[in-house]
Amino acid sequence: MTILLIEDEPLVAKNLVRMVQQLEPGAVVLGPLGSVSAGLAYLRSHTQPDLVVSDIQLSDGVSFDIFRQADLRCPVIFTTAYDEYAIRAFKLNSIDYLLKPIDPDELKSAFAKYHQWHGTSAGTDFREQLRDLLLDFTEHAPAKKYKRRFTGHYLRQIVPVPQEQVACFTRDEVIYLYTADGHKLITDYSTLDELEDLTDPTVFFRANRQFLLHLAAIAGYQSHYSGKLLVLLKKPHDIEVAISKEKAPMFREWFEQG
């Protein structure tokens, strides 16, 4: 039995590997993979596993995008903090789900369900069930709402900053917010990962580990001989931000579509 794990949170992934190995000692554990792109690349180039255990929200999208494009033929156990509607849909389609943090007993029950279901006539209908679930969820899932106002510390006050006034967020021990008119505010956000999840991806772009950029604050960019890009922010900042060769195509597409 082979089990493919798809999970982008390192600590959660580590604990999930440990639990799976304890509960299914005879299984070959594949992954964990942390993104939609990695999941697609793996399933397109390898024999499909017997079972997938997958988070829904990944670093570059939702895992549903993997299963829409990869013609998955095996069952999935979803791990999720999603809303009640999604949970009802999973039950209706005989696909199990686990709410985070994952409870070992619930994972054990999910594996037991898989073993009971595997090889039965119900198992042969999985592809159709998964397709119906993905269509149903796409049609009814509520649109994600992104944060449009942020806060920062300025002159011993906490002040609001509308999305339109943000030039970028940057990490340097703490998370700073640069405003379009040149102010640098300390925020109470913990990580850029947190902010990336809160912000509209059509407006903000995660350039690297240090910068999350607002589209309107970008003066332009130039290509470097190494393949990376150098992005220049508008005055009064005049900040130059490097984007890796690997991420350059994503930035170009985002910048042109935005």
From TrEMBL:
GO terms for molecular function: DNA binding. The keyword Phosphoprotein applies. Keywords: DNA-binding, Phosphoprotein. Residues 170-257 form the HTH LytTR-type domain. The modification 4-aspartylphosphate is found at D55. Residues 2-115 form the Response regulatory domain. InterPro entries: CheY-like_superfamily, LytTR_DNA-bd_dom, Sig_transdc_resp-reg_receiver, WalR-like. This is LytTR family DNA-binding domain-containing protein. The lineage of its organism: Bacteria, Pseudomonadati, Bacteroidota, Cytophagia, Cytophagales.
